[in-house]
Amino acid sequence: MDKCRAGSVRAPNQPARSETDSMTETPDRHDFALDLIVSAGRLAMDYFARLATLETESKKDGQDVVSAADRAVEDLIRDAIHAVFPSDGILGEERSHEPGTSGWLWVVDPIDGTSCFLAGLRDWCISIAAMKDGEADSGCILQPVTGDLYAARRGGGATLNGAPILASATARIETNLLGFGANFRIPRQSVIAFADALMASGGMFYRNGSGALMLAYVAAGRLCGYYEGHINAWDCMAGLLLVREAGGWTMPFPGPGRELTEGGPVLCGPAHLEHDLLALAVRAGHWT
Ligand code: LIP
Fold it and tell me: With CB atoms counted within 10 Å of each terminal CB, which end of the chain scores lower, N or C?
Protein backbone atom coordinates (compact mmCIF):
# COMPACT_ATOMS: atom_id res chain seq x y z
CA MET A 1 0.00 0.00 0.00
CA ASP A 2 1.39 3.37 -1.03
CA LYS A 3 0.67 5.02 2.35
CA CYS A 4 1.34 8.62 3.26
CA ARG A 5 4.09 8.97 5.81
CA ALA A 6 4.79 11.77 8.30
CA GLY A 7 5.55 14.96 6.46
CA SER A 8 4.56 13.52 3.09
CA VAL A 9 1.15 15.20 2.91
CA ARG A 10 0.85 16.49 -0.64
CA ALA A 11 0.95 20.26 -0.90
CA PRO A 12 -2.35 21.81 -1.99
CA ASN A 13 -0.84 22.96 -5.32
CA GLN A 14 0.39 19.49 -6.30
CA PRO A 15 -1.61 17.71 -9.04
CA ALA A 16 -4.45 15.63 -7.69
CA ARG A 17 -3.71 11.91 -7.65
CA SER A 18 -6.47 10.02 -9.36
CA GLU A 19 -8.06 7.53 -7.00
CA THR A 20 -8.30 5.07 -9.88
CA ASP A 21 -4.60 5.43 -10.81
CA SER A 22 -3.49 1.86 -11.49
CA MET A 23 0.12 2.74 -10.64
CA THR A 24 -0.66 3.53 -7.01
CA GLU A 25 -3.34 2.46 -4.60
CA THR A 26 -5.56 5.04 -2.91
CA PRO A 27 -3.72 6.21 0.23
CA ASP A 28 -5.00 4.96 3.56
CA ARG A 29 -7.28 7.73 4.86
CA HIS A 30 -6.29 7.22 8.50
CA ASP A 31 -2.56 7.48 7.77
CA PHE A 32 -3.25 10.45 5.51
CA ALA A 33 -5.21 12.18 8.32
CA LEU A 34 -2.38 11.60 10.83
CA ASP A 35 0.08 13.30 8.47
CA LEU A 36 -2.35 16.07 7.61
CA ILE A 37 -3.25 17.00 11.19
CA VAL A 38 0.44 17.46 12.03
CA SER A 39 0.84 19.86 9.09
CA ALA A 40 -2.33 21.70 10.10
CA GLY A 41 -1.01 21.92 13.67
CA ARG A 42 2.16 23.64 12.48
CA LEU A 43 0.13 26.27 10.65
CA ALA A 44 -2.15 26.81 13.65
CA MET A 45 0.88 27.30 15.91
CA ASP A 46 2.23 29.92 13.49
CA TYR A 47 -0.98 31.91 14.02
CA PHE A 48 -0.96 31.18 17.76
CA ALA A 49 2.44 32.87 17.95
CA ARG A 50 1.03 36.13 16.55
CA LEU A 51 -2.42 36.44 18.10
CA ALA A 52 -2.15 40.22 18.40
CA THR A 53 -2.19 40.55 14.62
CA LEU A 54 -5.10 38.13 14.07
CA GLU A 55 -8.35 39.36 12.55
CA THR A 56 -11.39 37.94 14.32
CA GLU A 57 -15.15 38.26 14.02
CA SER A 58 -18.22 37.11 15.94
CA LYS A 59 -20.63 34.61 14.38
CA LYS A 60 -23.84 33.89 16.31
CA ASP A 61 -22.83 35.74 19.48
CA GLY A 62 -19.86 37.25 21.28
CA GLN A 63 -18.74 33.82 22.49
CA ASP A 64 -18.96 32.26 19.01
CA VAL A 65 -15.92 33.64 17.21
CA VAL A 66 -13.82 32.85 14.16
CA SER A 67 -10.39 34.08 13.12
CA ALA A 68 -8.19 34.10 10.05
CA ALA A 69 -6.39 31.14 11.68
CA ASP A 70 -9.54 28.99 11.71
CA ARG A 71 -10.15 29.68 8.03
CA ALA A 72 -6.52 29.23 6.93
CA VAL A 73 -6.17 25.91 8.77
CA GLU A 74 -9.44 24.62 7.34
CA ASP A 75 -8.35 25.70 3.84
CA LEU A 76 -5.06 23.77 4.23
CA ILE A 77 -6.98 20.67 5.32
CA ARG A 78 -9.56 21.00 2.54
CA ASP A 79 -6.93 21.55 -0.16
CA ALA A 80 -4.99 18.46 0.94
CA ILE A 81 -8.16 16.32 0.93
CA HIS A 82 -9.22 17.65 -2.49
CA ALA A 83 -5.76 16.84 -3.89
CA VAL A 84 -5.73 13.20 -2.75
CA PHE A 85 -9.41 12.25 -2.39
CA PRO A 86 -11.18 14.49 -4.90
CA SER A 87 -14.50 12.60 -4.71
CA ASP A 88 -14.78 12.72 -0.90
CA GLY A 89 -17.18 15.07 0.85
CA ILE A 90 -16.10 17.63 3.45
CA LEU A 91 -18.11 19.08 6.36
CA GLY A 92 -16.08 21.75 8.12
CA GLU A 93 -16.90 24.46 10.62
CA GLU A 94 -15.83 27.48 8.62
CA ARG A 95 -16.51 26.70 4.96
CA SER A 96 -19.52 25.33 3.07
CA HIS A 97 -20.53 21.66 3.16
CA GLU A 98 -19.31 19.64 0.15
CA PRO A 99 -21.34 16.36 -0.01
CA GLY A 100 -18.93 14.39 -2.28
CA THR A 101 -19.70 11.26 -4.33
CA SER A 102 -17.38 8.58 -2.88
CA GLY A 103 -19.39 7.73 0.25
CA TRP A 104 -16.58 9.21 2.35
CA LEU A 105 -17.14 12.41 4.36
CA TRP A 106 -14.41 14.33 6.17
CA VAL A 107 -15.66 16.17 9.27
CA VAL A 108 -13.23 18.89 10.24
CA ASP A 109 -12.83 21.46 13.00
CA PRO A 110 -9.70 23.45 12.15
CA ILE A 111 -9.46 25.00 15.60
CA ASP A 112 -11.76 23.62 18.28
CA GLY A 113 -11.72 25.82 21.35
CA THR A 114 -11.37 28.99 19.32
CA SER A 115 -12.14 31.19 22.33
CA CYS A 116 -9.26 29.57 24.22
CA PHE A 117 -6.98 29.90 21.18
CA LEU A 118 -7.70 33.63 20.88
CA ALA A 119 -7.19 34.10 24.61
CA GLY A 120 -3.72 32.52 24.35
CA LEU A 121 -4.80 29.50 26.42
CA ARG A 122 -3.59 25.94 25.72
CA ASP A 123 -6.99 24.20 25.50
CA TRP A 124 -7.59 24.10 21.78
CA CYS A 125 -7.09 21.42 19.17
CA ILE A 126 -7.62 20.30 15.59
CA SER A 127 -10.18 17.56 14.98
CA ILE A 128 -10.39 15.47 11.79
CA ALA A 129 -12.75 12.53 11.27
CA ALA A 130 -13.36 10.44 8.14
CA MET A 131 -16.79 8.83 7.87
CA LYS A 132 -17.71 6.05 5.44
CA ASP A 133 -21.41 5.65 4.60
CA GLY A 134 -22.38 7.55 7.77
CA GLU A 135 -20.07 5.69 10.19
CA ALA A 136 -16.91 7.24 11.66
CA ASP A 137 -13.99 5.17 10.38
CA SER A 138 -11.03 7.32 11.42
CA GLY A 139 -10.60 10.08 13.95
CA CYS A 140 -7.67 12.16 15.14
CA ILE A 141 -7.38 15.09 17.53
CA LEU A 142 -4.16 17.07 17.90
CA GLN A 143 -3.46 19.55 20.71
CA PRO A 144 -0.59 21.47 19.06
CA VAL A 145 0.53 23.29 22.22
CA THR A 146 1.32 19.99 23.99
CA GLY A 147 1.89 17.87 20.89
CA ASP A 148 -0.61 15.31 22.15
CA LEU A 149 -2.09 13.35 19.25
CA TYR A 150 -5.17 11.22 19.96
CA ALA A 151 -6.18 8.78 17.22
CA ALA A 152 -8.63 5.97 16.57
CA ARG A 153 -9.50 3.73 13.65
CA ARG A 154 -12.84 1.88 13.75
CA GLY A 155 -12.14 -1.57 15.21
CA GLY A 156 -8.52 -0.64 15.86
CA GLY A 157 -8.60 0.87 19.34
CA ALA A 158 -7.61 4.35 20.47
CA THR A 159 -4.17 5.79 21.14
CA LEU A 160 -2.48 8.84 22.63
CA ASN A 161 0.90 9.51 20.98
CA GLY A 162 0.86 5.93 19.72
CA ALA A 163 0.17 4.29 23.11
CA PRO A 164 -3.20 2.55 23.71
CA ILE A 165 -5.74 4.43 25.85
CA LEU A 166 -8.88 3.23 27.59
CA ALA A 167 -11.84 4.98 29.13
CA SER A 168 -11.82 4.70 32.92
CA ALA A 169 -12.99 1.37 34.36
CA THR A 170 -13.39 2.72 37.89
CA ALA A 171 -14.58 6.33 37.62
CA ARG A 172 -17.71 7.39 39.44
CA ILE A 173 -19.75 10.53 38.92
CA GLU A 174 -19.49 11.42 42.60
CA THR A 175 -15.69 11.20 42.68
CA ASN A 176 -14.52 12.21 39.20
CA LEU A 177 -14.83 15.22 36.90
CA LEU A 178 -17.49 15.23 34.17
CA GLY A 179 -16.80 17.15 30.95
CA PHE A 180 -19.53 19.71 30.41
CA GLY A 181 -20.00 21.74 27.25
CA ALA A 182 -21.94 24.97 27.61
CA ASN A 183 -22.87 27.39 24.86
CA PHE A 184 -25.53 29.89 23.84
CA ARG A 185 -27.08 27.51 21.32
CA ILE A 186 -29.22 26.09 24.10
CA PRO A 187 -31.28 27.87 26.81
CA ARG A 188 -29.28 28.97 29.87
CA GLN A 189 -31.82 27.23 32.09
CA SER A 190 -30.91 23.84 30.59
CA VAL A 191 -27.24 24.44 31.30
CA ILE A 192 -28.04 25.42 34.88
CA ALA A 193 -30.38 22.43 35.26
CA PHE A 194 -27.70 19.97 34.21
CA ALA A 195 -25.06 21.53 36.45
CA ASP A 196 -27.55 21.42 39.34
CA ALA A 197 -28.44 17.77 38.71
CA LEU A 198 -24.75 16.86 38.46
CA MET A 199 -23.84 18.58 41.72
CA ALA A 200 -26.94 17.18 43.43
CA SER A 201 -25.51 13.76 42.48
CA GLY A 202 -22.22 14.64 44.15
CA GLY A 203 -20.50 15.28 40.83
CA MET A 204 -18.51 18.24 39.51
CA PHE A 205 -18.22 19.64 36.02
CA TYR A 206 -15.12 20.47 33.98
CA ARG A 207 -15.30 22.79 30.96
CA ASN A 208 -12.33 23.92 28.91
CA GLY A 209 -14.13 25.28 25.85
CA SER A 210 -13.11 22.45 23.49
CA GLY A 211 -15.60 19.63 23.15
CA ALA A 212 -13.16 17.64 21.04
CA LEU A 213 -10.44 17.78 23.70
CA MET A 214 -12.86 16.88 26.49
CA LEU A 215 -14.03 13.86 24.47
CA ALA A 216 -10.40 12.84 24.04
CA TYR A 217 -9.97 13.11 27.81
CA VAL A 218 -12.91 10.72 28.29
CA ALA A 219 -11.19 8.25 25.95
CA ALA A 220 -7.96 8.66 27.91
CA GLY A 221 -9.70 7.93 31.22
CA ARG A 222 -9.26 11.46 32.56
CA LEU A 223 -12.97 12.46 32.60
CA CYS A 224 -15.88 10.25 33.68
CA GLY A 225 -18.00 11.41 30.77
CA TYR A 226 -19.00 14.32 28.57
CA TYR A 227 -22.28 16.09 28.09
CA GLU A 228 -23.31 19.04 25.97
CA GLY A 229 -26.91 20.02 25.16
CA HIS A 230 -25.95 20.84 21.56
CA ILE A 231 -22.66 20.22 19.79
CA ASN A 232 -21.74 20.31 16.12
CA ALA A 233 -20.50 17.28 14.20
CA TRP A 234 -17.10 18.85 13.54
CA ASP A 235 -16.54 19.23 17.28
CA CYS A 236 -17.36 15.66 18.20
CA MET A 237 -17.15 13.03 15.43
CA ALA A 238 -13.47 12.23 15.98
CA GLY A 239 -13.85 12.36 19.76
CA LEU A 240 -16.87 10.04 19.84
CA LEU A 241 -14.96 7.45 17.79
CA LEU A 242 -12.07 7.76 20.25
CA VAL A 243 -14.42 7.11 23.19
CA ARG A 244 -15.97 4.04 21.54
CA GLU A 245 -12.60 2.62 20.51
CA ALA A 246 -11.35 3.21 24.07
CA GLY A 247 -14.15 0.94 25.33
CA GLY A 248 -16.55 3.72 26.24
CA TRP A 249 -20.24 4.23 25.57
CA THR A 250 -21.64 6.99 23.36
CA MET A 251 -25.24 7.97 22.82
CA PRO A 252 -26.05 7.93 19.08
CA PHE A 253 -25.15 11.27 17.47
CA PRO A 254 -26.79 13.49 16.26
CA GLY A 255 -29.78 11.52 17.46
CA PRO A 256 -33.06 10.36 15.94
CA GLY A 257 -34.57 12.58 13.25
CA ARG A 258 -31.52 14.88 13.05
CA GLU A 259 -29.18 15.49 10.17
CA LEU A 260 -25.43 15.45 10.79
CA THR A 261 -25.29 19.08 9.65
CA GLU A 262 -27.76 20.08 12.41
CA GLY A 263 -25.72 18.71 15.29
CA GLY A 264 -27.41 17.66 18.49
CA PRO A 265 -26.87 16.63 22.11
CA VAL A 266 -23.87 14.53 23.06
CA LEU A 267 -23.58 12.21 26.06
CA CYS A 268 -20.85 9.62 26.54
CA GLY A 269 -18.57 8.04 29.10
CA PRO A 270 -17.08 4.80 30.40
CA ALA A 271 -19.28 1.79 29.61
CA HIS A 272 -20.05 1.11 33.30
CA LEU A 273 -21.51 4.62 33.72
CA GLU A 274 -24.04 4.50 30.86
CA HIS A 275 -26.99 4.13 33.22
CA ASP A 276 -25.78 6.80 35.66
CA LEU A 277 -25.10 9.28 32.87
CA LEU A 278 -28.51 8.74 31.30
CA ALA A 279 -30.16 9.07 34.73
CA LEU A 280 -28.33 12.35 35.23
CA ALA A 281 -29.55 13.70 31.89
CA VAL A 282 -33.12 12.62 32.68
CA ARG A 283 -32.85 14.21 36.14
CA ALA A 284 -31.81 17.44 34.42
CA GLY A 285 -34.89 17.20 32.22
CA HIS A 286 -32.85 16.65 29.07
CA TRP A 287 -34.34 13.26 28.24
CA THR A 288 -37.55 11.58 29.22
C1 LIP B 1 -16.55 24.82 20.76
C2 LIP B 1 -17.00 23.43 21.13
C3 LIP B 1 -17.50 23.35 22.56
C4 LIP B 1 -18.62 24.35 22.78
C5 LIP B 1 -18.13 25.75 22.46
C6 LIP B 1 -17.62 25.86 21.02
P7 LIP B 1 -15.41 25.97 18.62
O8 LIP B 1 -16.23 24.79 19.37
O9 LIP B 1 -15.91 22.55 21.00
O10 LIP B 1 -17.97 22.06 22.83
O11 LIP B 1 -19.05 24.27 24.11
O12 LIP B 1 -19.21 26.64 22.63
O13 LIP B 1 -18.70 25.67 20.14
O14 LIP B 1 -16.45 26.99 18.28
O15 LIP B 1 -14.39 26.49 19.54
O16 LIP B 1 -14.85 25.32 17.39
Answer: C
Given CATH 3.30.540.10, say whether it is the number of domain 29-164: yes
Other beta carbons within 10 angstroms of residue 5's beta carbon come to 9
Nearest atom of ligand 1 to the alpha carbon of 185: 12
pLDDT tens, residue by residue, 45-94 = 999 999 999 988 888 887 888 899 999 999 999 999 999 999 999 999 99
Domain ranges of the chain: 29-164, 177-283
Cis peptide before 265 (omega within 30 of 0): no
Ligand 1 close to Cβ of residue 235 (< 6 A):
yes
Residue 128 CA to ligand 1 centre (angstroms): 15
Q: Which residues pair with 138 in a beta bridge?
A: 130, 153
The structure's pTM equals 0.90
